[in-house]
Amino acid sequence: MKDSNYIKVYTGSLVTTQRVIGELDRIGISAVVKEQSETGLIADVFGGSGDFQEVFVHKDELDKATKVIEDLTSGLEA
Fold this sequence. Notes:
- By secondary structure, the protein is an alpha+beta fold.
- The longest helix is centred in the C-terminal third of the chain and has 16 residues, at about 60-75.
- The model has no long low-confidence stretch (mean pLDDT about 80).
- The N and C termini lie far apart (about 30 Å).
- The protein has helices at about 15-25, 40-45, 60-75, and strands at about 5-10, 30-35, 50-60.
- The chain is globular and about 25 Å long.
- It has a 3-stranded antiparallel β-sheet with strand order 1-3-2, with helices on one face.
- It has one domain (about 5-75): 2-Layer Sandwich (Alpha-Beta Plaits).
- About 45% of the residues lie in helices and about 25% in strands.
């Protein structure tokens, strides 16, 4: 998403990304999701499928989105 008004705010698994999107939607932020799929060595080494998603928000909503994501992900790390 080069040269756009959207900024990547999160990258993670499908499950976690869906939770992030839900929380952003709850406060009125419409996120854009870009799905990535990596194959090969990285997925083999770490034992996962290598699939992940990137979440982007409009630059005008960056501060609000960052706060929501920080609150959510800090709870996931506990």
